[in-house]
Amino acid sequence: MSAPQIKGWCPGAHRPMLSGDGLVVRVRPFRAELRAARVLALCELARAHGNGTLELTSRANLQIRGVSEAAFPGLLEELDALGLIDADPAVEARRNILMPAGWRDGDLTDRLHAALLETLPTLPPMPAKIGFALDTGPQGHLASESADIRFELDPAGGLLLRADGAATGRPVVEKDAMAALAQLANWFVDSGGAASGRMARHLRQISLPDEWQRALPRAPRPTLEPGDTANGRLLGVPFGSVDAGALAEVMERSGARALRLMTGRLLCLLDGDSEVPAPGFVTTPGSPLLAAHACPGAPFCPQATVATRALATRLAPEVDGTLHVSGCAKGCALPRAARLTLVGTDGAFDLVRDGAPWDPPRRTGLSPLLFDDPATLLTGMP
């Protein structure tokens, strides 16, 4: 079997990625929020130009799946008309920004976001997957999410700029925040960070200057869960995949004014009726489906040789901890260690305990049929 083909970039609107079911077109909503009318329009585009499936990514973006080559130009025009994409493809590709759940118009996070949008085009060329976190909301929830350069708060509420992979950061004031960000970006490039691709990997090979390691960020808060919050109703999205029709229905029936996209495969309905049924979503805390990760698998990904999500759904209640069912060794759905990882290989599965998909397996060549009785099989596994 040939090695999985690892892309050095993520799909975007201007630069979609070809998968087994067509093009994957990623939309990066500004401030991770969509007004209700735009949500409904995006759902209609997913049905008209794709296969009716939207995906919520680990960076809280939305992807339209199953877009044909012929349909793509029309889709891009309509996304542009809705104001959902940047005119400049280079800027759109750089706009990997994580927003906290509780940001408000005009607050520190909102102001930093506006300043960052102005700063992005001026930064030096960096690897395509480099991302930014604005973890400056009422509570810190983004420390473990995928970002390379992080704005955070210290325990006293002061602003910090921290390189991912470093335990401490550099205190900054708001008016100098973007200049400091540019300095850190230039250090990353000048010290050879492009070869590593990500900040944390780079810091495993080179020491960060002391000036960037002066203060601890505030302690992170527990992971958010589905349910009612002060900001609105949180809905979980199993495996990050949602039917566009189901999303449109819950938006319309709830009367929510907007949809906020969040990490942890959560959606927040702002100012909507929290009692409206939401079939297909996780509505209560503690669901094992939100601790299970699975890529689309075969036949939707050309590199996968196994189906993934039906198996992950069956196994999730039986696994104590994080489950990852990966169609190949790339591990796109969870590129880090899990309590139990199953890796598709030539139509069968390799089993990894407390590791990532590319780590040495405990067992190999497991038939999918063996998992028809998952409780018995997993109990007996080393």
UniProtKB/TrEMBL annotation:
SUPFAM superfamilies: Nitrite and sulphite reductase 4Fe-4S domain-like, Nitrite/Sulfite reductase N-terminal domain-like
Top-rank taxon: Bacteria
Leader sequence residues: none
InterPro entries noted in UniProt: NIR_SIR_4Fe-4S, NiRdtase/SiRdtase_haem-b_fer, Nit/Sulf_reduc_fer-like_dom_sf, NO2/SO3_Rdtase_4Fe4S_sf
Coiled-coil annotated residue ranges, if any: none
Keyword terms of this UniProt record: 4Fe-4S, Heme, Iron, Iron-sulfur, Metal-binding, Oxidoreductase
Domain Nitrite/Sulfite reductase ferredoxin-like intervals: 16-81
GO molecular function: 4 iron, 4 sulfur cluster binding; metal ion binding; oxidoreductase activity
Protein name (record): Precorrin-3B synthase
